[in-house]
Amino acid sequence: MARIDGIIILDPNGKPLISSHFPLHPPSYPSLHIDTFNSARKKAIADDEELDPVIWVNTLSRGGGSMSGAGLCHVEREGLYFLVPVGQEVNPLFAFSFLDAFLDTLKDYLGEMTEINIKDNFDIIYMLIEEMLDEGHPMTMETNMLKEIVLPPTLMRKLLNVAGVSGLQAPATQPFTAPIPWRRPGVRHSSNEIYFDIEESIDALIDKRGNILSSSVWGRINCNSRLSGNPDLLLNFSNPKVLDECAFHPCIRYNKWEKNRILSFIPPDGKFRLLEYQAVPTTTGTVKNQLPLGVKANMVIEPNGGRFSITLSSRLNSRPLEDIVISIYLGKGATSVCATAQGERKPLGSRSEEGAAEGFVAGGNWEFDPHTQILKWKLSSLVSTERSPTLTGSFVSSESQPTPSPSFEISFNIQHHSFSNLRVDQLKVQGDVMYKPFKGVRQLARSGKVEVRW
């Protein structure tokens, strides 16, 4: 059966903060993985390459007489590195899936995953690892159940720990006695409400003329449930056919979804992820025409430099695109950039003393980092009714034949928008409850990995 050897957390400098769950291995086993990871990371930085998500580590076999090996799966969050060694024949997705759940739990417990928070909550993190891993096998993964076993950090608890006071009040409900594993019994709220956040991202590849070569839409539905008792919910969508390749929370009754395309579930209390999915094209349109941004780009390479131009346009009539960032890697030898961002001058609500409307250039602003050789063009918003903003300029390189990236990346956000047009139609409440909850639905669309070729 697949198992995880343990988990290691490193600080931004590669020094271990936490190393746990390696009882079946010699003491040097986690150190080998840490040294291998740090060496591979330094080499990737020196060669200006991306670090492979799975690294092979040479280790001694348990008998000590021959060389063996293990895979090292790792992710980076907020400057910290989370490593999971797997010494058996294990699908790496198994380790990454555990890491994803572990990081979500840490975020729920600690808020921001910073080095200071990790150091201030060593005891809680070690207890979480003990409960989430049973001899290398994922065990208790539900946050609601974990909070019945490992109390979240609070200001009062920290003060009592500093004062040396022990014996904090244990939760009234004994763990693992709830008939529904993901929901503790006896939940009570003064106001009964549930919120659904539909978040979608689009991955796309665009040629220099603005034609979309490939694209796909991914989404998730996050919930925040504050409902009393054990409500049995039925969630209907107006167009459930757009949902494909779904990954459900364990609370969802899969048979009812397969039969009627209705989500039937008793929700956990608090925040949880209800559903992840990939959107598929419908009969009224395709995913390819859902990219809300039009792009035309051109790059000309010259000796010791080059010239470039980018034009943006919005394809949305109802919503503005916000927080637009264009990132262009100009190559190792790039030393300086000279560029001009142009666009409409949009008036603001206030007026100056002379009576003229104050405003800003909608072309945004740009900045170049000579250490990373990345040029960033930022626009706060873009609407379809304004003149298309442009960025034109040139760069200087110390190399006679510059080699900028063959493509550049775009990021953006769109409030109250859905690429797939997924809509919540109705929410029904059944079970032993006598109330009608307040339902809130919020939508957010953002870019995933959107690349434009020169």
Automatic annotation (TrEMBL):
Keywords: Membrane, Protein transport, Transport. Residues 191-453 form the MHD domain. The keyword Translocase does not apply. It is found in: Endomembrane system. One of its GO terms (cellular component) is clathrin adaptor complex. InterPro entries: Adaptor_comp_med_subunit (IPR050431), AP2_Mu_C_sf (IPR036168), AP_mu_sigma_su (IPR022775), Clathrin_mu (IPR001392), Clathrin_mu_CS (IPR018240), Longin-like_dom_sf (IPR011012), MHD (IPR028565). One of its GO terms (biological process) is intracellular protein transport. Belongs to the adaptor complexes medium subunit family. This is MHD domain-containing protein. It comes from Kwoniella europaea PYCC6329. The lineage of its organism: Eukaryota, Fungi, Dikarya, Basidiomycota, Agaricomycotina.
